[in-house]
Amino acid sequence: MNGTAMRIALFTHSVNPRGGVVHTLELGRALHEAGQDVTIFAPSVGGAPMFRASPCRVVLAPAAAHGNDTVMMVQTRIDALKAALLEEGASGFDVLHAQDGIGGNALADLREAGSIRGFVRTVHHLDAFDNPRLSAWQRRAYADADTVLCVSDTWTRKMRDEFGVTASTVNNGVDVARFRDVGSTDVCTEFGLSGKPMVLAVGGIEERKNTLQLLEAFALLRQTHAEAQLVLAGGASLLDHDTYTQRFIARAAQVGLRIGKHEPIVVTGPLEDAAIPALLQRADVVSMMSLREGFGLVVLEALAAGTPVVVSQIEPFTGYLDERVCCWAQPDDATSIGDALRRALHERGGVDFERAVPELLARFSWRESARRHIALYANHVQRIMQPLGA
């Protein structure tokens, strides 16, 4: 690109605060600050705005409501992104980069139709779908991409070894100032968050987040910390987690833990953007007991807020964390999780917030992520612009 700013289009699946959407917005900001011309595309139902402001241009693609039909939801968002990109002039962008399967299929459709030369896809993680159409969409979104990126070495290896796809690793990042310079918020008062201690998990109630096992561990913790409170924050997912949520509610009742404001378990649902940094600072410990993650950005965010974290001792976490910066637990063992929560509550789990945590956070900056993306984008553009047969 000879040092000239690229026109970059980033595609995300939603305007809601999910990890992939946060990644898109933060990457867009870092690319913008590096002098690139960035436009972010996102489907929007009913004109809903992007949950966080961006210095980049944001195109909201009008998408129809879909009820509880996941297949129809995905199709309408694919169609919305295609229409929005064509209206904006697809050929005017140097790089078209999808962060998920919805954007990936929109670009795959346009590539097949000859409207674009190619596209980049970041695989954060892959899900197991019972519906064959969802599975096919998921595969096509990376299989048809010209350049595949992953946010951890774990997933780069998985893509190579399990799916035969060559990918490059690009780091996630964390805006340390955002989680340290927290303004006032009424979230604690609004939900009656007065637990001593307060255990926080971000992402709502999901099987992938292992929320039922965390519930079992929390019940054990309450045996020694009778005033403890479990806060399940966020959860603006496009997928249907109702069945798993009902299991969670039923099990909470069986172990005698009430759910609601001022109760031992508080489920906030989606929150305003400023609430998550405030909760991360207010919490005594943050739990990240996921069974499957692409990276697990909340871990870095919690550490940036100065809060100890209990983390599943599995990949990708074992690839960038160690016992100096977190308390490990086995995600399939409630006793292990409960013991790790207790360790984290005792002298902050022995986490080295003086040296090891700052060193970790310094390794994962959005500026460095943008630099890596720009280099990979340049290679991608050179490759897709090669004449056929070259």
From TrEMBL:
<keyword id="KW-0808">Transferase</keyword>
<dbReference type="Pfam" id="PF00534">
    <property type="entry name" value="Glycos_transf_1"/>
</dbReference>
<feature type="domain" description="Glycosyltransferase subfamily 4-like N-terminal">
    <location>
        <begin position="18"/>
        <end position="178"/>
    </location>
</feature>
<feature type="domain" description="Glycosyl transferase family 1">
    <location>
        <begin position="195"/>
        <end position="348"/>
    </location>
</feature>
<dbReference type="Pfam" id="PF13439">
    <property type="entry name" value="Glyco_transf_4"/>
</dbReference>
<dbReference type="InterPro" id="IPR023986">
    <property type="entry name" value="GlycosylTfrase_MSMEG0565"/>
</dbReference>
<dbReference type="InterPro" id="IPR028098">
    <property type="entry name" value="Glyco_trans_4-like_N"/>
</dbReference>
<dbReference type="InterPro" id="IPR001296">
    <property type="entry name" value="Glyco_trans_1"/>
</dbReference>
<protein>
    <submittedName>
        <fullName>Glycosyltransferase-like protein</fullName>
    </submittedName>
</protein>
